[in-house]
Design goal:
The chain is of the alpha+beta class and 216 residues long.
Length: 216
């Protein structure tokens, strides 16, 4: 999915088409209740794969949320990331329910220096161990100042398909669409521990718009 102006992500077309087709068949057969349920399902699936535009902050030091949802954890330590071993980072974890927009966005401008995909389990994404046990895609982004930022797309109990639209070597702007996770999951973003936090646990955030921290 490359077009930012498309209101529905292309990954949703097969799902929407299938449910709409089944609803059409039910309607032809005059099965009113199943047809109405099918129509409601079609609307929900279309809603799930929505791809809204966002107003990205103009402050170059602002780091925006990479996903819509609820901030479920913030901690600073030396995480077991595939790109680093001894550097201290602050991790901000955002849980996406099935009702949230599932398009993921770049938290800041920079270049994608590396990307690693790990096969794993499908533990409920709200659980802490999901960040290390679940199937996930780790994206290393280097800012223009050379600071590392890591975005981790994590599959969940229901969400079992991680999509990334970017490749290593590509540049991204803050708030730019970079991928999605189907049917509810979690995104972790790791930033240098010296950066100033602008969000708290329990806050709801919108990808590409809400500032979660600032580069220092």
């Amino acid at each position: 999915m490359r077009g930012d102006s498309i209101p529905i992500v292309r990954e949703g077309y097969p799902f929407i088409g299938l449910v709409a087709f089944l609803t059409f068949i039910l309607a032809i057969l005059h099965l009113q209740v199943p047809a109405l349920l099918g129509l409601a399902t079609t609307f929900f699936v279309t809603y799930f794969f929505r791809n809204p535009d966002r107003i990205v902050p103009t402050d170059p030091d602002a780091v925006v949320a990479p996903a819509d949802g609820k901030v479920i954890a913030i901690e600073t330590n030396k995480p077991a990331l595939p790109f680093f071993s001894q550097e201290e980072f602050t991790r901000i974890s955002i849980f996406m329910s099935i009702f949230d927009v599932h398009v993921n966005r770049a938290p800041c401008a920079g270049c994608i220096e590396d990307m690693k995909y790990f096969r794993g389990k499908f533990i409920a994404a709200q659980k802490e161990k999901s960040s290390e046990k679940n199937e996930r895609n780790c994206i290393l982004l280097k800012t223009k100042s050379g600071s590392p930022v890591v975005v981790v797309q994590i599959a969940g109990l229901i969400a079992r398909r991680i999509v990334c639209w970017k490749k290593v070597g590509e540049g991204v702007n803050a708030g730019e669409r970079i991928g999605m996770i189907r049917f509810g999951s979690r995104v972790d973003v790791f930033v240098p521990a010296t950066w100033r936090l602008e969000v708290r646990v329990g806050a709801r955030v919108r990808a590409g718009e809400d500032v979660i921290c600032r580069q220092m």
